[in-house]
Specification:
By secondary structure, the chain is of the alpha/beta class. It folds into 2 domains: about 220 residues, Rossmann fold, CATH 3.40.50.10490; about 35 residues. About 50% of the residues lie in helices and about 10% in strands. A 5-stranded parallel β-sheet has the order 2-1-3-4-5, with helices on both faces. α6 links the parallel β3 and β4. About 45% of the residues are buried. The mean pLDDT is about 95.
């Protein structure tokens, strides 16, 4: 079933009417209470995805150990969340930016400006991936709350045809992206407070799931020691201070001595393991 047929023939959960009517008549406290009540459903929906996430991450880790990379693709909010998660990996885990790559329909301009029509270009999904020389040890994760985004579907199809591991993160069971993903991750969060506004619960679920994918993967790859970001980039005063305190806690030395060693060695891991 292609994306356009799915749009015509099926009622997506993400497009179903919200539970709360006449929002414009509610006061501020009531609106916030209703939004918060719906948000509480998100963590439970993500919890139900843990078995599928486990299988995906157990497929990602050995590929990355062989030099593979994670590629996120998406459009609109979903695309921005993929780029955000990818962008946070280098400072958090001290890994090269090439390890996790976020691609958004419409290119980087779409991060700040709406380029909604770009998501309809099915062929562009593969073109953008191919520009990064995606290969057999890489992993392509299509992020699409609706599950119908042609840009994402096209990328998934092309990758699967070439034997590249595929996954998707969506909020609609049976959506087209699930048909082309080896590992479909489906977080059923229900209708949005503002009907169809998937930047709300759906976006929150996607953010949680992407966090889980990269954080768990990086831990499995040895980029965390105990529960500390020992490979983080020491790019500002706050992070240097955090690194010093990690060393103080790990080695039982004074703050000044920890600072001296950190500035000499240049990384928390280097100090702790020397």
């Amino acid at each position: 079933m292609n994306s356009s047929h799915y749009l015509r023939s099926m009622q997506k959960i993400t497009e179903q009417p919200g539970l709360y009517r006449h929002l414009e008549k509610q006061d501020t406290a009531e609106l916030l209470t209703n939004i918060n009540r719906e948000d509480q459903k998100v963590a439970l929906a993500v919890e139900a995805c843990i078995p599928a996430l486990t299988a995906l991450i157990d497929g990602i880790v050995p590929r990355m150990q062989r030099g593979g990379r994670i590629f996120y693709t998406g459009a609109g909010t979903s695309g921005r969340l993929g780029v955000l998660d990818a962008s946070e990996c280098p400072p958090t885990f001290g890994v090269p930016s090439e390890w996790v790559v976020g691609l958004i329909a419409g290119g980087d301009h779409a991060l700040r400006h709406s380029v909604e029509s770009a998501e309809d270009a099915e062929e562009q999904g593969w073109i953008d991936l191919e520009a990064h020389n995606i290969g057999p040890d890489d992993i392509m994760i299509g992020v699409a709350a609706s599950g119908t985004t042609p840009y994402v579907v096209g990328g998934l199809k092309a990758c699967r045809e070439r034997g590249i591991l595929t996954a998707c993160v969506t909020c609609n069971p049976g959506a087209p992206v699930t048909e082309h993903a080896d590992h479909p991750i489906v977080a059923v969060v229900g209708p949005e407070v503002v009907t169809g506004s998937t930047r709300m619960k759906s976006g929150t679920a996607q953010k949680l799931i992407l966090n889980m994918i990269t954080t768990t993967t990086m831990i499995r790859l040895g980029r965390v020691k105990d529960n500390r970001m020992v490979d983080m980039q020491l790019s500002n005063v706050k992070l240097v201070d955090r690194g010093i305190k990690m060393i103080v806690d790990a080695l039982g030395i004074s703050y000044d001595e920890a600072e001296r060693r950190l500035l000499l060695v240049g990384s928390v891991r280097g100090v702790i393991e020397e």
